[in-house]
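Worked example 2:
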Amino acid sequence: MLTRTWLNGGIAALAMGAAMAMGVSGAMAQELKLSYFMSPKHPMNKAVFAPFAEKLEALSGGKMTVKQFPAGELGKGPQQQYKRAIDGVAEVVFGIPGYTASIFPRTMLVAIPGVVPNAIDGTEMLWGAKNYLDTEFQNVKLLAMWSNEVAVLITRDKAVRSLADVKGMKIRAPSAADAPFIKAWGAIPVQMPVGETYNALSNGVVDAVMIGSSGIGSFKLNEPAKYITTNLPASAAAFYLVMNKKVWDGLSDEEKGWVDAASGIELSRMGGKAYDAAGKRGLKLAAEGGVEIIELSEAERAKFSEVSQAEVQKVLDDMIAEGIPADAILAEMRNAVGGS
């Protein structure tokens, strides 16, 4: 309902205006390539990619269209997505800041354990701090950014009910930014792209996979899993949809208006809401398949938070030493959802 309402809102009037302008506008019809590394069945296609394409085409009266290139068709490797946006391999690119965390230290504040409560609030937090984050997207045109839900811990051979249970475990880290916190728990962080997690858990390359619960269904992690631990003070992940800067700069003011109207915070909110819903579906799918869902007790959650605190402070202190106002960014993020 959200997608339909958003797409239809104002389109009739805008499309009429676009049609009237067709005879005088100098804009040439153009097709934008949209690159992403997941299957076209991934929830973000229905929630973000397709709505963006449909609204842009409607607003422009068919002058601007989007062709999807899923599953790494324009180049393998999720880590290279941002470079593809810079180099113009595709005009529009979906990516994850965590895969190139050194480029996005401000955005990666959402990866600090306990900062983001859920995907919907996480998305609002990112936009609340947008004035601080824009500098990290200055080489592209930012179309949308949103958060997923807080990560869960998926295991095959050992249930995790306490901090003591994770000691010595090899845990897949969602990003490099998560590694210090996993170490603080007494575990061993292992970095790998999300597409490798199924085989890694199945074959014992890792003992556990840390990932947002939406990834359970998207990557079939319910199949090798026997246990899933929730209520960890874990991180969330940020996501972006960006446009090549030269392409953006080459658009007319009218074309830029169409792109802006088809993207922005409302499109981002759709991504956050879709992740929240997909996360709930993932846990339900796992439970129905016999996976034991373990909700970490508040006492044990506090233990995870306590041993992580020194690393949290170190991250903030290091950023401040480099001239990044981490405290101010976090304050803006929390203010966006009524936090303190």
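Residues 1-7, 10-27 have pLDDT under 50 and may be disordered. The chain has two domains: 2-13+26-148+237-277, 151-235+285-335.
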